[in-house]
Amino acid sequence: MKAYNFFDKFKFTFVSFCFFLFSIYPIAYPSDYHYKKSKLEVFKPVIDSLVSKGIDTESVLRLIYDKRTTISEKYARINIFNRPKLEFENIITQKNVEKIEKFINQYREILSQAEKKFSVSKEVIATILFLETRLGKNLGQHHIITVFLNVAIGNNPKYVENYLKEEEKNIVSIDSLRNLISERSTLKAKNALSELLALIQMQKEFQIDILSIHGSFSGAFGICQFLPTSYISFGYDGNKDGKIDLFSYEDAIFSVSNYLTKNGWDEKDSIAQFNALFKYNRSKAYVEAILRISRNLIIKKPLKN
């Protein structure tokens, strides 16, 4: 009888252990296995960093092994090496102003509520949402877990050397560029790690399926294009449904307003307005576009192109 009980107990323990292993290391075809192994090797620095920050190994491996998560050097390149210069001049048109005006009329009630609570004009809020995602019509198709994992290893010597080889013919001093890239990639890797930690916090505290989120090449998501750290700090439940969903207009509107207010926005101080907007997007052209469009909306004056 004792032997039987021991066997039953052993069998239960063994099956439970196998189930645990399967949940972390799913059975796969050989090619799948080798790709998972590659991901483990490539992302090992990130895994070690996240675990050292107190994230349990199982949670980290689930992110790494998910089929939607991929190794993609392009995110290191676009965010560290070849970050595109954003142009806003072609956006400042009367046609686009009319689109924003139509949006304001459609969501006037919720915009007015946010305006009253945070003292940020509805014209500014609507203009930001237009510039960020064309009022929710262009949300981005980049898997943000993949974005941050790859940027977090952007200081990988292999990535840096690949870039330097391509640029060698176009520059005078390869050493100065190497130093610049090394500093920038280290800073970006550190920031990406912070965003990954914020994503995991979103998953634990707000029960958000972070593996399903897609957004911009820089990892911003939602109608207002917040980074995960901004979601944690400034996300706001505008429709009072008990959750913060930046893909809903109500929450996006309130979250933008909350962000600007907490970053010093003042309706009577143009310098404070500029600084708050610059924190939202560190581009002078971006800030000037928002201020120009929103002022024309307020005074009901057509734009002069």
Could you give a short description of this structure?
The protein has 305 residues and is an all-alpha fold. Helices cover 66% and strands 1% of the residues.
Describe this structure in words.
The chain is mainly α. The chain has one domain (45-305). Helices cover 66% and strands 1% of the residues. It has helices at residues 2-24, 30-42, 44-52, 57-65, 73-81, 94-106, 108-118, 122-133, 144-152, 157-167, 174-206, 228-234, 249-262, 270-280, 284-299, and strands spanning 142-143, 214-215. It has a two-stranded antiparallel ribbon. α7 runs parallel beside α13 (249-262), α8 packs across α13 (249-262) and α11 crosses α12 (228-234).
Count of β-strands:
2
Please state the CA-atom Rg, rounded to the nearest Å: 24 Å
Specify the overall morphology: globular
For the record, the count of structural domains works out to 1
Low-pLDDT segments? 26-30
Based on helices, strands and strand pairing, what is the structural class? Answer: mainly alpha
Binned, the helix content reads 55-70%
What percentage of the residues does DSSP assign to strands (E)?
under 5%
Based on the structure, what is the oligomeric state of the protein chains? Answer: single chain
- Could you report the average pLDDT, rounded to the nearest whole number? 88
Task: Sketch the topology as an H/E string, one letter per element.
Answer: HHHHHHHHEHHHEHHHH
Total helical segments: 15
The biggest sheet amounts to: 2 strands, antiparallel
The strand order across the widest sheet is: 1-2
